């Protein structure tokens, strides 16, 4: 186990350092006013149903299992911390992790939509990071697509018999990457390339950003496993509570 | 196990500072703005932020507050669970 882990890490680091030669780049939330209003509206409309289902799930869970409140606070805090950290990447620019994978594994993707939106709102209002008009689009990528990818991938990993820790790692990492793939897609739809169209613009946005985000995604995966290890050691009781709902670690 | 993971995470964050030279690690959203202006130069943002932190220092403060709040809560909860487990 130890040996294979070490090998895995070395390979990752090598690939990582190779990427350090890439050109400079972008990735993060879409800034205020930077989506044409038609697109802003489309993403708001797509996002809202997820938000309301999440809100309903959350109130129901809090009523049935008030003991889960602490874990909810933990998931929220985790997203708060991770999305506040602008981390330098090999491409010479900074971006930040999302922290949404963790909560999605604990509570299911819908509740994470609510938590992720709260964090985005905080950043849009106080930090001028992201925006209100683009909140729908940003929430759709970070608080809908991210959590759903994490959750889906985790279920898939378990079906394939991949170890629990590895599944948590992959789920959190891919949630992070998927968020920014979605952001690139949203930008590409709104700003298609003159010659190569939407697909060309998408490749332009995504090909570069994927490299910026990759090390951050790995970092997020690692941190998620660390927190999960703590929970697994010290609060089996709460995890079992959630397990009954069929959400987490059966 | 946890220590190894945290070490790798730290390594991933610190390495770029040494590998990549001649950059200020600008926020990627600023770079996105430039990319959009390059693809469609005629686009004008149609809505402006309601409140913008006056200057980089205040922005840093607010980001720190966000991280500190989150970290405090995480520390509290994990400590609580740990203590509870020890006391049965």
Give me the secondary-structure topology.
The complex is a heterodimer of chains A (250) and B (88).
Chain A (H helix, E strand, L loop, with lengths): L1 H18 L17 H28 L4 H16 L2 E2 L4 E3 L4 H8 L1 H18 L8 H25 L4 H27 L6 H38 L1 H8 L7
Antiparallel strand pairs in A: 1-2
Helix pairs in contact in A: 2-5, 2-6, 3-4, 3-5, 4-5, 4-6, 4-7, 5-6, 6-7, 7-8
Chain B lengths: L1 H18 L6 E2 H12 L16 H31 L2
Description:
The complex is a heterodimer of chains A (250) and B (88). By secondary structure, chain A is mostly helical. Chain A has one domain: Arp2/3 complex 21 kDa subunit ARPC3 (Orthogonal Bundle), CATH 1.10.1760. Chain A has helices at 2-19, 37-64, 69-84, 100-107, 109-126, 135-159, 164-190, 197-234, 236-243, and strands at residues 87-88, 93-95. The longest helix of chain A has 38 residues, at 197-234. Mean pLDDT of chain A is 84; it is low at 19-27. Chain B has one domain (2-47, 55-85). The mean pLDDT of chain B is 82. At the A-B interface, α1, α3, β1, β2 and α5 of A face α1, β1, α2 and α3 of B. β2 of chain A pairs parallel with β1 (26-27) of chain B, so a sheet runs across the interface. Chain A: One of its GO terms (cellular component) is ATP-binding cassette (ABC) transporter complex. Chain A: Its main location: membrane. Chain A: Forms an energy-coupling factor (ECF) transporter complex composed of an ATP-binding protein (A component, CbiO), a transmembrane protein (T component, CbiQ) and 2 possible substrate-capture proteins (S components, CbiM and CbiN) of unknown stoichimetry. Chain A: Belongs to the CbiM family.
Along the chain, the helix and strand elements of chain A come as: HHHEEHHHHHH
The oligomerization state is heterodimer
The level 1 CATH classification of chain A is Mainly Alpha
Distance between the termini of chain B: 25 Å
Return the domain count of chain A: 1
- Based on CA atoms alone, the radius of gyration of chain B comes out at 20 Å
The overall average pLDDT of chain A, rounded, is 84
Helix content of chain B: 55-70%
Mean model confidence by pLDDT of chain B: 82
How many β-strand runs of chain B? Answer: 1
The major sheet of chain B is characterized as:
none
Principal-axis shape of chain B: extended
Percent of sequence in beta strands of chain B: under 5%
Quickly give the structural class of chain B. Answer: mainly alpha
Which chains have the largest interface?
A-B, 79 and 59 residues
Q: Please count the helical segments of chain A.
A: 9
Strand neighbour order, sheet with most strands of chain A: 1-2
The count of DSSP E runs of length 2 or more, i.e. the number of strands of chain A, is 2
Subunit structure (chain A): Forms an energy-coupling factor (ECF) transporter complex composed of an ATP-binding protein (A component, CbiO), a transmembrane protein (T component, CbiQ) and 2 possible substrate-capture proteins (S components, CbiM and CbiN) of unknown stoichimetry.
Pfam family, one (chain A): CbiM
Protein name (chain A): Cobalt transport protein CbiM
Family (chain A): Belongs to the CbiM family.
